[in-house]
Amino acid sequence: MDQFKERKYSVGIIVLAVALILLVRLFYLQVIDTSYKLSAENNSKRIDFEYPARGLIYDRNNALLVYNQPSYDLMIAPYELKPFDSLELCNILKISPQRLREGIRNSYQKRRDPFVRQLSPETYAVLQEKLYKFPGFYVKARTLRKYEDEIAAHLLGYVGEVDDANIASDPYYSLGDYIGISGIEKSYEKYLRGEKGQSVYLVDVHSRIMGAYQGGRFDRNARVGQNIICTIDAGLQKYGEKLMKNYKGSVVGIEPSTGEVLVLISSPDYNPSLLIGRQRTVNYILLQQDTLEPLFNRPLMANYPPGSTFKTVNGLIALQEKVITPDTKFYCDLGYYYGRIKVACHDHQSPLNFPQAVQNSCNAYFCNVFRNIIEDSKFNSVTEAYNNWRNHVLSFGFGNRLNSDFTNELPGFIAPSSYYDKYYGKNGWKFLTIISLAIGQGELLITPLQMANMTAIIANHGYYYTPHVVKEIQGQNSIDRRFTEKRFTTIDSAVFDPVIEGMDLAVNGGAGSTAYWARLKDIIICGKTGTAENPHGEDHSLFIAFAPRENPQIALSVVVENAGFGSSYAAPIASLLIEKYLTDTVKRTWMEKRILETNLLNKR
Amino acid sequence: MKRNINILESIDWLTIGIYLLLVIFGWINIFAVGYNDQFKNIFDLKYNYGTQLIWILASFALIFIIFILDHKVFPFFSYLLYGLSILMLVAVFLFGTEVHGAKSWFRIAGFSIQPSEFAKIGTSLALAKYLSGYNITKFTFKTFAVCSAIIGMPFFLILIQPDPGTAMVFIVFLLVLYREGLPGWILLMAAFISGLFLFSLLIDIPNIVTGLIVLALIAHYAINRRFRVFLISVLICAAIFMAAFYANQYFKLGYQKGLVVIVALTVSGLICLILALRYKIRHVLLTLTLLYGFIAIPYSVDFVFHRVLKPHQQKRVNILLGKELDPKGYGYNVNQSKIAIGSGGFSGKGFLEGTQTKFNFVPEQSTDFIFCTVGEEWGFIGTSLVILLFTGLLIRIVFIAERQRTRYVRIYAYLVVSVLFIHFAINTAMTIGLFPVIGIPLPFFSYGGSSMMAFSILLFILMRLDAVRMVYL
Ligand SMILES: [Zn+2]
């Protein structure tokens, strides 16, 4: 009767087939493909960061150096936008309508990117009044650095936004965070940054907050950055920068008894306020293009041959190896002659004993000293003697990074014997080949920081503390242990007296004192001049000094590039700094005047 | 008294059980979407779950009324109810409230009623009544024409609201005609036309036309199996099309692409016809007629869409079809829906733990996309349960249909199967990206009084009729 009864099966099969297709698809979507779970997370989770203020930086006398100023970023919440007077907003922000349109478009993709970064205070003041007219726009407060005195730019360093490499290497950071990029800001980033606070929210499709994610399990309060007391003496630093203003070069001052860096000047430098916030990138490029290289951190990165200042080290090694005594005398006839080789010297009385040789900086004397070291009969070969000398030199912290808390310190260079082997063949070199080392020239490169450290070693009679720039970190019991460990050189402390005597004479002796410019009434300064040979132009003027002789408070190295003989500029600058540091006032205004009124910046 | 006892005994409790499971599970999911900290009680009418509960209770009341009524009223008043449905559709077109660009709603005393949902009941009753008539023993062209008219009237009235999604549901009634003897090829043709209809709104016309010509040529080869003639026709078509386009471009005639296609079609069609007559090719007239008929569909859809519909109505259709959704662009809704369902995993995030559906990432989450909540909170276990419940319900109704002793009830049962099936299949398929997004609800699940009540009435008229299958003659 019902000829189409069989068709019920077709209907049934259609229903079952569709059900099967749906089940397979659902199984794939829900069980096999896991990518949707991640998308769901990204959809509905929003992390709001609360940025803490960075720690402040004080000098050793608790004078404020670096603090924070508020800064405001203008943000867009795209789903809360309502029609508004775009022309008015453009006028307030001083941007083009085009830029506004782009900003709004971008805000859909990047919800956390600021639309306008670091509004100027004037703009912010105007905008804040009228913000109610622009629903969907809101202001997020951040902090930027501000400097009390615009000094010590290299030392303090600067702060900028994290880059991809930062984010990749440390999960703490996310896009838009600030990070210390150089100086103390970089090396003490961990303490200064504090800890970002975060609130993880569940948001709906309009980015409206619907509640805490997993009951606020991942929420954290922000922790303000730890303050830092650095070792710098702000007054001294400021005065030093003033003195060095017209010179290329560097000043490093260390407190010998602690290794604390009192002053660190790279000249010419820049105003640290230039590298704050929005204008940083632009200014950085300008500074980079400056031919005077203000971004070059000379105290840590410039390599100089130490010149005559190095005679102190050679003298110490010779005395330690007992190849001379303080009373050993050598003749000098306007130089040192050995076959066809001549190392010239200036006119002075002859012969000289050891302290006098230091006082007069006699080249001939120290050529003899170095010959005694290298041709020491204790050793089987020149190489062996050289290696022994080199070990002594390395113990002063030369040839390696001192491992201070400066991030971009360079190691300098003390040639290993293999270096000479390569050039002259094994045993193909002798004392004469390397004679220039005797007077601190040749294959010898030292940074101003190392030079100052050497001075501190002499002041300490043979040991040093790794130079460092931070004295105290708020909330930490002590600074890193490597800064509180005494590091001894290979030279016995008793050996130092004749060298110190020589350095005293160099400043305070009578005729023949090479550094009489550095002389200071009432305070005994021990110093040594030096001249770093400069193949590209006028030699660099070097001076090392510490004072007072008994219980030294400060050890200095001063480099003035292209200034010629060491005593002419470097010595008076060092002397003025010592006067400033130890007496707090500079009475020798005539000397100060001469330094301030000369300009060697463009000298080559 | 005796009869009432009989009814309770012969009611199909299995179907009612599945129905209750679906309604309860559906409400739980609507509750999950609306639940928040301000939760007071489940009757809170500020939230969807509160009102939905009212609708569910109202549906139960209607079911009770259906069982009180004499079973004979349904066949007796079939045409009257159908007429009433049509009247409502006309009225809503004239006096309805426009929501989102479509005039589909009556607003009465704060409640919204959607006549198109109820029209499914009237149409089902009328179709069953007509097809079971004593005079219809064989499926003739006249039968087909009358049926088409019964289906076509509400279809057209809903289409012009415009609500193409709901209108398309009516095409599914052809499934019933198939069960009652409609030739299979008409069913295929109908499916094909529905597809074409949909694609016309989604894809550029020239692409559709090209596709159709390729299909016609393949059909032509399949029927005749004469490769040489097939090759010649392909070459002629290609040549004429290229010539037409080239001429348009070269002489800078500046005709629209669509017009050029029409000219090329006419010319190549005529040449093919002449050739076919010469070589005595079979069915060429039929193939060509069908081809032109089919090609006319996208053009007329395009014409209606662009010339008849107002811009806001066009937008409505585009939104329904997923062409225009959100500032975030095409496919956003489906993608969010897939994320919600996919993130549920095997066992789900747990009741009230869904984030995607709760926080509006999924559009229309308690109405058309309620299945997303099932997927997110109950996982594959939940979704497969829903699929199985629906499949079970549908198979059960087919079984019920086949045990009827009257054609009227059997046909009506198949109509119920068709309506429920098409809603279930399309709704779930669109949430998982297997079907374009057309806004039709998931029966017994989706939020909404009209659909909740209409589907309940639809099903329980069948339950009522089935309960008296032993006495009904
Ligand atoms: Zn001499």
3D structure, described in words:
The complex is a heterodimer of chains A (604) and B (473). Chain A contains 21 helices and 22 strands. Chain A has two domains: 173 residues, Penicillin-binding protein 2a (Domain 2) (Alpha-Beta Complex); 364 residues, DD-peptidase/beta-lactamase superfamily (Beta-lactamase), CATH 3.40.710. Chain B is mainly α and 473 residues long. Chain B has two domains: 347 residues, no CATH class; 106 residues. Chain B has a three-stranded antiparallel beta sheet with strand order 1-2-3, covered by helices on one side. In chain B, helix 5 runs parallel beside helix 7. The longest helix of chain B is centred in the C-terminal third of the chain and has 33 residues. Classes of the chains: A alpha+beta (604), B mainly alpha (473). At the A-B interface, helix 1 and helix 2 of A face helix 9, helix 16, helix 17 and helix 18 of B. The complex binds zinc ion. Zinc ion (ZN) binds next to helix 15 of chain A.
Quick summary:
The complex is a heterodimer of chains A (604) and B (473). With 604 residues, chain A is of the alpha+beta class. Chain A contains 21 helices and 22 strands.
Point out poorly predicted stretches of chain B. Answer: 325-330
Q: What proportion of the residues of chain A is helical, as a percent range?
A: 25-40%
Query: Radius of gyration of chain B in whole Å, from Cα?
Result: 25 Å
Q: What is the third-level CATH name, the topology of the largest domain in chain A?
A: Beta-lactamase
Structural class of chain A: alpha+beta
Beta content of chain A comes to 15-25%
The mean pLDDT of chain B is 81
| Greatest interface and its participating residue counts | A-B, 39 and 47 residues
H and E string of chain B: HHHHHEEEHHHHHHHHHHHHHH
CATH-level-4 superfamily name of the largest domain in chain A: DD-peptidase/beta-lactamase superfamily
In total, the number of strands of chain A is 22
What does the largest sheet of chain B look like? Answer: 3 strands, antiparallel
What is the helix tally of chain B? 19
Report the β-strand fraction of chain B as a percent range.
Answer: under 5%
User: What Rg of chain A is obtained from the alpha carbons, in whole angstroms?
Assistant: 34 Å
